[in-house]
Amino acid sequence: MNTSIYKPGESVVHRLNPVTKLVVAAAVSILVFLVPNYRFALAISLALFVGVAVAGVSGIVLRLVGLAMVPFGALLLVIQGILNPANHDAPFFVVGPVTLWEAGVAETLLIFFRVLVLVLSFLLMATTSQPQKLRIALMEKGVPPQLAYVFIASLQIIPQIQARAEAIADAQQARGLDREADIRTRSKSLVALLAPLLIGTLIVANTRALALNARGFNRRTPRVFLYEVADPAGERALRWASVLAVIGAGAWRVFRWL
Amino acid sequence: MALIDVDDVSFRYSTQPGDERALRGVSYSIEEGEFVGITGVSGAGKSTFCRTLAGQIPHFYQGEFDGTVRIDGVDTRARSIGDLATDVGFVFENPYNQLTGATSTVLEEVAFGLETLVDSREEMKRRARDALATIGVEGLADRDPMQLSGGQSQRVAIASVVAMRPRILVLQQPTAQLDPEGTEEVMEVVAQMNREGYTVVFVSQDLERLAPHLDRLAVFDGGRIALDGPPRDVLGTAEADDLPVLVPPPVRIGYRLRESGRIPAAEPLPLTLEECAEELSGVVETASDRGVASAVDDDVPPSPGATSPNDAASPQSAVDSASTAPVTDSAADSACRSDDANGRVEARGEVVLDDLHHTYEGGVHALRGVSFSLDDGCVCLVGQNGAGKSTLVKHLNGLLKPTEGRVAIQGVDTTEQRVAQLSRRVGLSFQNPDDQLFHSTVEEEVRYGPRNMGYSEDVIDELTERAIERAGLTDVREKNPYDLGDPWRKRVAVASVVAMDTPIVVLDEPTGGQDAPGHDLLGDIVEALVKDGKLVVVIAHDMDFVAEHADRVIALARGTVLLDGDPATVLSDRETLSEADVRPPQVTRIGTAIGLAEPVLSLDELYRRLDVQTH
User: Fold this and answer.
1) Mean pLDDT across the stretch B364-373?
2) Is the pLDDT of residue B393 over 60?
3) Do residues B222 and B24 lie in contact, with contact meaning Cβ atoms separated by under 8 Å?
4) Domain that holds residue B74
5) Closest-CA residue in chain A for B107?
6) Within an 8 Å CB–CB cutoff, is residue A196 touching chain B?
7) In the predicted model, is pLDDT for residue A179 greater than 90?
8) Cβ within 8 Å, pair B420-A195
9) Which residues of A touch B423 (CB under 8 A)?
10) Does B416 touch chain A if contact means CB atoms closer than 8 Å?
C-alpha cells in the first residue's frame, strides 16, 4: 500500500523547484490550447514523456494516464469523429453504416493531445515534487499558507479517498448491495457508496481544520520552514520564458482574430 | 492557583435542541502535574469538557457557552486556539485525521506545527527530534506517516503536539481505535510524560489499563461530573452503586472480598493485577482446598482434556475437546438446506475453510494455509493486527476469494456466488461504522440490510423492529446516526447487519471504544443470536468479551492458526498466546497468579472457586 502520489527520487526533474514545475505545467497546458495544431500538442506530449522517463516515474504516470486518457480518447472519437454533425464533410473511413469523418478525426486529435499535455504535465509535477517542498516553495512565492496547504493536501488525498471508497464498497456489499446487478439497481446503489464517502471526507476535513488550527497553523507570526527550497537564476528565467511564451501566443491569437 | 480552572461551565451545541445541554454547570480544577482520567457513558459530556480546555469551545464549535475556563489564570475566551496550543496540547481519537495528510516523513509532520513557533530551522529540527525522542519514536523520523501502525500513528500525533511544548496534554479517547499493543504503547508514553511533569487529562473507557496511572478519576454523567476522586475510591463507589462504568476486575474482586467480610472494609481497594493477586493469596490460604475443589463440579464446564495447554497447539486435538462448540461433519447436513418461500435462508450455518491462502496483489501473503470448520455458537478470532483476521472474515462473504484453497459457506463454494448472493448467508459488520451509514434516520439505516435481502415488507418490518430493540436503539430510532456519538453509531451499524437475519453473522471488533452499557448490549446481542441458532464470528481484541461470550476461540498469528479450542484452553495458554501478542483476560491472569490449577474465565467462577459469598 502506498498512499502518496509523490515518488521520491534524485532526477533532474525532482531537483527542480516545485514552483518551476507548476509554472511550466500551467504554461504548456495553456499554450497547447492557444496553438490550434495537434502536432504542436503532440510534440509537447512527447517532450513530457521524455521528462517522465528521465524522472523514473513512468510506472505510476503511465498507469494513471492510461486510466484517464484511453476511455476519454475513445469517447472523443465517437462524439467528434462519428456523431458531431458539424464535422460531417469528407469521410475518412467507412465501416458499414458507420462513417468516420475527416474533420472529426482532426478535432479528436487536437482535443486529445491538448488534454494529454494537461494531464501529463500536472502528473509529472505531482509525482516528482515532495509535497512539503511544494508547499514551502508556494508560500515563499507569496501564496497564502491556507491555500498552499489545501493545494498539496488535495494532491495527496486522492489515494486516501480511493482506500476509503474501497472500504465503503466492502461494507455495503456485506449488507447486500449488489455491485454486479443490472444498471438500474447499481445506479440506485450509488448513493450508498457516495454518501458515506462524502460525509466521511467532510468529517475528516473538519477534524483536520481543527487539528491544524490547534497546531498554530493560523498564527500570523513569521514562518520558519523545515526545508530550504533552492531557486536558481536559471529556473527563474525558465519561468519567465514560460510566461512570456503564453503571453506571446495569446497576443498572436488576438492579432489573428482582429 | 490551579493550572486548569473550570468554573460553572455549561454548553449547548447549536445543533442541540433548546433544552439540552452537553455540559451543565461543571466546575473542576486540576493542579500542575496531575494525571486525571475521565470516563462515563457516550454522550455524558466528556468530549465537550475536553474541548473547553483547549479553547475549541467557544472558538471552533458553535453554541451557547456559559461560565469560564482559565488556563494558568487566563480566560480561554481571551486566547485563540493556536495560541492556547502552546499550553494545551490536544490529541484526537483518530490519529489519521489529526495528522496533516500532506507530509511524506514523520519528521515533516512533527515539524509542521512549529512553523509559526520557532526562530530558526535548526531549532525546528531540534524540537521535532526532541519530541520524537520523548515519545520514543525517533526511529520513525524518516518513515511515511500514512504507513504506520495505529499505535505508531497515535504516538506520532502525540509527538506533533508535544513538539509545541505544552504543559498540559488533553487526550480524547486516544486508544479507542487501537489494538491492545497500540493501547499499551500510548498509555505507557503518556504515563512517562506525566512523570516528567506534564499535566494530563485522559479520556478513556479502558480503565483496566488507565486507572493504575491516575491521580484522579472523574466520571461524567448527563453533562455533569457525577464522581471525582482517587481512582480506588471512585471505582469502589461505581461498583457499589452499580454505575455504568467499566470497573476493572481487581477493583471488583477487592470490593467483593470486602463486602463478604474476607477483607476489612477500610482497606484500600486493589487497582492492579499484582495488588489483587497479593490480596487474594491471603484469602486462598484461608479458603483452603475446599474452595478450590468445590468449584470444579459446579455448572461451569471444566476445560475438557486441557491438562496440558500445549495440546491446544494442534488444532485437531483442540477441536475434539471443544465440547461447547460442536464441530460436526458439515457435508452430511448441508444437502438438506434450502431457501424457504420468503427467500430467507434457513438457520444454522456452517463454514468450511480448507487450506485457505490469500496473497494480496502487492505480494503480502496474509493467510498461509488456514483450515477449520465452524458450525454454531460464538467463535472469537483473536490475534494482533496484521495476523490475518480481517482478511479471513472477508473470505466468509466472498469480498475476497482464496488465492489458494477453498472456502465453503453452507456447502456453497464462495467462488461460485456474488457477494450480494453470499450476503444472504453471511452478514458482516466492519469496524468503522462510518463506512456504512448514509440514511437520515437510525430506523431507515437498520432497514437497509433486510431490504437488500429482498424480504417482504412484513418481514422487513419485523426484522427491523427486533434489531432496533435488541441494539437498544428504540429511543433514538428517529435520529440521524451522525448526530449520535461513535459508540451509538457502531450499534446502529451492528443492528443493520443483525436485521439481515442471516444464519451467519460476523462482527469486527464490536466492543471497541464502547462504554459500559454498550459492552453489555453487544454481549447480549451476540448471546441472543447464538440462542437463535446462528453462527456468530467475532473479531475481538477485548479478551474479557471473549472470556464471557466465546464458545470457541481461534488465535491467529502471521496468517496461520496458532490455537483453536474452547476459551478455557486457549485463554489459559499464556505462552502460545504471547506468540500471537494476545494477553489472557485479567481475571484469568489473576487466577494464574494465585496458583489456581484450572483456568478461570469469569469473576463468578473465581468467586465460586474461592468460595467468596456475598451473604
Assistant:
1) 93
2) yes
3) yes
4) 4-240
5) A226
6) yes
7) no
8) no
9) 173-176
10) no
- Range with lowest mean pLDDT among A65-69, A141-145, A202-206, B409-413: A202-206
Per DSSP, the three-state class of A86 is helix
Segment B527-545 shows an average pLDDT of: 94
Q: What is the structure's pLDDT at B258?
A: 93
What are the pLDDT digits (tens) for B237-254? 999 999 999 999 999 999
pLDDT single digits (tens) A184-201: 777 777 888 888 888 888
Buried b (16+ CB within 10 A) or exposed e, B330-361: beeebeebeeeeeebbeebbbbbbeebebeee
A-interface mutation test, from B52, B92, B109, B112, most A Cβ less than 10 A away: B112
Is the pLDDT at B316 greater than 50? The verdict is no
Neighbour order of strands in the sheet with B404-409:
B365-374, B351-359, B404-409, B412-413
Are B169 and B24 found together in one domain? Answer: yes
ipTM of the complex, rounded to two decimals: 0.82
Quick one: which H or E segment has residue B345?
none
Output the pLDDT for position B325: 39
Tell me if B52 is assigned to some domain: yes
Residues of B in contact with A6 (CB under 8 A): 104
Q: How many domains does chain B have?
A: 2
As a whole number, mean pLDDT of residues B101-117 equals 90
Question: pLDDT band for position B403 (50/70/90)?
Answer: very high
B190 and B276: one domain?
Answer: no
Interface residue B97 vs chain A (CB under 8 A): yes
Task: Name the residue among A172, A176, A200 with its Cβ closest to that of B453.
Answer: A176
User: Which sequence spans correspond to the domains of chain A?
Assistant: 1-129+223-250, 131-219
In a shared domain, residues B270 and B166: no
**B512: in domain:** no
B600 contact partners, CB below 8 Å, separation of at least 6 = B587, B588, B590, B591, B606, B609
Residues of chain A with Cβ-Cβ distance to B93 below 8 Å are none
State the pLDDT at residue B614: 52
Pick B435's closest partner by Cβ from A2, A168, A221.
A168
The residue count for chain B: 615
Query: Does A139 lie at the interface with B, CB-CB under 8 angstroms?
Result: no
**Cβ–Cβ pairs < 8 A, chains A and B:** 191
CATH number where B219 lies: 3.40.50.300
Asked whether residue B16 is assigned to any structural domain, the reply reads yes
In a shared domain, residues B136 and B263? no
Q: What is the pLDDT of residue A3?
A: 61
Mean pLDDT of the region B46-61: 95
Please, what is the Cα angle at B401 between B497 and B541, to 5 degrees?
50
CA atoms within 13 A on the CB side of A209: 11
Which of B86, B100, B392 has the most A C-beta neighbours within 10 Å, making it the best mutation to test the interface with A? Answer: B100
Q: Do B270 and B202 share a domain, yes or no?
A: no
Does B193 fall in a domain? Answer: yes
Instruction: Please name every residue paired with B193 in a beta bridge, in sequence order, or none if there are none.
Output: none
Q: Are B116 and B265 in a shared domain?
A: no
Q: Which of A175, A182, A193, A221 to mutate to probe the B interface, most B CBs <10 Å?
A: A175
pLDDT (0 to 100) of residue B545: 93
Is residue B267 located within the same domain as residue B198?
Answer: no
Residue A202 pLDDT greater than 90, yes or no: no
- The answer on B166 and B260 residing in a single domain is no
* Mean per-residue pLDDT of chain B: 87
* Contacts with A173 from chain B: Cβ below 8 Å: 397, 399, 419-420, 423
The pLDDT of residue B64 is above 50: yes
User: Can you tell me which residue has the cell 500500500?
Assistant: A1
Q: Quick one: which of B47, B146, B144, B164 has its CA closest to B95?
A: B146
H helices of A129-232, in order, are: 131-140, 145-173, 183-214
Would you state the cell numbers that stand for residue B553, as one nine-digit string?
476461540
CA distance B287 to chain A (A): 52
Instruction: Pull the grid cell for residue A231.
Output: 531557486
What's the mean pLDDT in A55-78? 92
Which residue from A3, A175, A191 is facing B449, i.e. has the nearest CB?
A175
